[in-house]
Amino acid sequence: MLLTDNVALVTGSSRGVGAAIARALAREGASVCVNYLQSEDKAHAVVQAIEEAGGTAFAHQADVTDEADVTAMVEATLERYGRLDVVVNNALPSYQFDPAAPYTSIETVDWAHFTQQIEGAVKGAFHTTRAVLPAMKAQGHGSILNIATNLIFNPVVTYHDYTTAKAGLLGLTRTLAAELGPHGIRVNLIAGGLLRTTDASRVTTDEVFDLVAGSTPLRRAISVDEFAESALFFASDLSRAVTGQTLAVDGGLTMP
């Protein structure tokens, strides 16, 4: 298995992409901290699924925008497992991919929309990264993976707030990679397309999914589980020579 004896923390992993990544990491041998904010029952369901498949995991409630919460979560993971090798910054503020929403026009979007997304995505990744650095530096290695969107390369729908926040993660990924590389810590980013199906995309119609699928070289929409598989590359030693990079997992719709 790719991640035997590794320990991973996945923020926002009680459902959707985060849950799929947590399950994939556990399947490859990692012990996983399943982070959640409000969905306690769903987080414990993810843990149960991992354990029933022979893996190891525990659920921990923490608000990634709260530094003290994140510090306590990292300390709990280290106390339980003694190390921390992989961090996936996936937590996402509540969002709906609705082309008719007010945040799709610069004339109707509010700055509060921006601050909500930036706080959740960028501030959350900032807190988590800061909290895990002492352990990763002491180990002399680590992998930090940020989850973004292909809209930062191809804004086919102008979700101003969401896309701006995710573009901030791209900048953070590159600057962290430059700083932390000498400590053996790699930082990379996965940019997903419209995935079938997440909470954010549940209002998306079949016609839109078909339109996106027809625009990709693979001629199909990408599933949540397929997206999660790409995290295994960056989490494992398969990518030991890779840092500061972005992988678009969208069937070839964008080619950054």
What does this structure look like?
This protein has 256 residues and is of the alpha/beta class. It has one domain: Rossmann fold (3-Layer(aba) Sandwich), CATH 3.40.50.720. The protein is built from 7 helices and 9 strands; from the N terminus they run βαβαβαβαβαββαβαβ. A 7-stranded parallel beta sheet has the order 3-2-1-4-5-6-9, with helices on both faces. β5, α5 and β6 form a beta-alpha-beta unit. α3 packs parallel to α4 and α4 packs parallel to α5. The chain is globular and about 50 Å long. The mean pLDDT is 94.
Distance between the amino and carboxyl termini: 30 Å
Q: Would you identify the regions where 5 or more consecutive residues have pLDDT less than 50?
A: none
Q: Helical proportion?
A: 40-55%
Largest sheet: 7 strands, parallel
- Order of strands in the sheet with most strands: 3-2-1-4-5-6-9
Look at the helices and sheets and give the structural class: alpha/beta
- Can you count the helices? 7
Q: CATH homologous superfamily name?
A: NAD(P)-binding Rossmann-like Domain
Our Rg estimate from Cα atoms comes to: 17 Å
Just give the CATH class. Answer: Alpha Beta
- How many distinct beta strands? 9
CATH fold-level name: Rossmann fold
Count of structural domains: 1
Would you list the SSEs in sequence order as H and E? EHEHEHEHEHEEHEHE
Shape summary: globular
Average residue pLDDT: 94
